[in-house]
Write a structure and sequence with these properties.
15 strands, 3-stranded antiparallel sheet, DNA primase, PRIM domain, 2 domains, 6-stranded mixed sheet, 6 helices, globular, 306 residues, alpha+beta
Length: 306
């Protein structure tokens, strides 16, 4: 690519700018490479983004420069980019979220140096009813990615005992994200209540490795089992989202049997496409295999929250 280029993507004219700008100085990765990656990965990424309000993190000066979260579609958003208005009780205003519903929108976002993609867990037609529950395994200072792997396998055992299927991906940093597909009849409050109990059960099995304590200073080198993202409007980085870290790692779905020997640094903007061509989208079942949580909740003998 030249430093600036006018191109047509699926019938939409897009002006790509500053293509030679280096976004990852230590790795020499440019904005052109970011745009190319997102264009090539979009066929796998599309269903994880479509019809979901999207929050992005932009790095106009590269990953070592200033960055900012963007919820509201900027004034220069092209008219063909789909958006959805959502009233925010917190800020007492309506936010126009971008919907990355097509490839031109994805390329336009990448041209804005939107490195991280954070879609809602619910779609805009039923914003209070997510497609999946999420538990984030986040190693505290003194804990490692390998510790998170051990905790992930314990958490999977808990879910197996309850008859629930779950899927795992790297966070792209030092942790792991566990996704539990659910039917869109459970609201966020019910799902947060359920995942809290799953997190507590996991910690009870490996108290020296895991914790649900929110205060960072009290985690004592353990893996934080975070269920608190299961709230309307909160987000987790999308599968195949790039992260603003050295090497340009990508949040990558894994098979459970890969967990013990995996390392997040193996999955980057330069390696993930070959993996996808070999294995396909390992997270595709998350969007089609919704499960009822009621049988598991009843098996736990807890008061119904559903």
């Amino acid at each position: 690519m030249n430093n600036q280029q006018v191109t047509v993507v699926a019938g939409r004219q897009i002006t790509l700018t500053n293509l030679n700008k280096v976004l990852w100085p230590r790795d020499g990765l440019t904005k052109a490479e970011l745009i190319r990656y997102y264009a090539e990965v979009y066929p796998y990424l599309a269903e994880h983004l479509r019809h979901r309000p999207l929050v992005v993190t932009r790095f106009p000066d590269g990953v070592e420069g200033k960055s900012f979260y963007q919820k509201n579609a900027p004034e220069h958003t092209p008219p063909w980019v789909a958006t959805v208005p959502v009233y925010s009780e917190e800020s007492r205003r309506t936010i126009d979220f971008v919907l990355a519903n097509d490839l031109p929108t994805m390329c336009w976002l990448a041209n804005q140096a939107c490195i991280e993609l954070h879609p809602w867990m619910s779609r805009c037609d039923k914003p209070d009813y997510p497609d999946f529950a999420v538990i984030d395994l986040d190693p505290s200072e003194g804990a490692t990615y390998k510790d998170a792997c051990e905790v992930a396998l314990v958490l999977k055992h808990v879910l197996d005992q309850l008859g629930l299927v779950a899927y795992v991906k790297t966070s792209g940093a030092t942790g792991l994200h566990i996704y539990i597909p659910v039917k869109r009849k459970h609201n966020y409050e019910a799902i947060r209540c359920f995942t809290r109990r799953i997190a507590e059960m996991t910690v009870e099995l490996v108290p020296r490795k895991a914790t649900v304590v929110r205060q960072v200073k009290k985690r004592a080198g353990r893996v934080y089992v975070d269920y608190l993202q299961n709230v309307r409007g909160k987000t987790v980085c999308a599968p195949y989202s790039v992260r603003p870290l050295p090497g340009a790692p990508v949040s990558t779905p894994l098979r459970w049997e890969e967990i013990p020997d995996s390392h997040p640094g193996n999955f980057t903007i330069r390696t993930v496409l070959a993996r996808l061509q070999k294995h396909g989208d390992l997270f595709a079942p998350v969007l089609i295999n919704g499960q009822s949580l009621l049988p598991a909740w009843q098996r736990l003998g807890l008061p119904s929250a559903f």
